[in-house]
Amino acid sequence: MAESGEFDIVCRAVDGDGVGGLVDIARLAGWGRPVVAVFEAAAPELVAEAFAAGADACLELGADPRVVVAQVRAVLRRAGAYDAGAPGSSGVLQVGDLVVDVDRCEVQRGGWWYR
Fold it and tell me: How far is it, in rounded angstroms, from Cα 102 to Cα 7?
């Protein structure tokens, strides 16, 4: 799905030694896709390697939601896919049938809202 170009941003989980995730990050970055690396435990050496491979941002799974939203918006803004000052803009992100309203802290999937 990440290769399709259908999405404005790609998040890639990087686990353990990170080898597979780092290869994927480099490939996605090479295609011009903004990439956020996500770590269960963000060891400094692994985060540095992810940035070197082409990651645009790095987050830990337990990161505060406000930090996650700020990082994703920053990456999208640099990629030209998010304009915080656009009229009518909102904190709504949509991928397929998954809708995340970060301003209201709600998620919708398959027509069902979760709070």
Answer: 18
Sheet holding 112-114, edge to edge: 92-95, 98-101, 106-109, 112-114
Name the CA dihedral angle for 101, 93, 74, 36, rounded to a multiple of 10 degrees: 110
CB atoms closer than 10 angstroms to residue 16: 10
Cα–chain center distance at 40: 15
| Contact by Cβ (8 Å): 113, 25 | no
CATH number (domain holding residue 61):
3.40.50.2300
Phi-psi region of 32 (alpha: psi -120 to 50; beta: other; left: phi over 0): left
Alpha helices in 1-115 (DSSP H): 19-30, 44-53, 65-78
pLDDT tens, 59-113?
998 888 888 888 888 888 887 766 555 444 567 777 777 788 777 777 887 777 7
Does one domain contain both 111 and 65? Answer: no
- Measured in residues, the chain has a length of 115
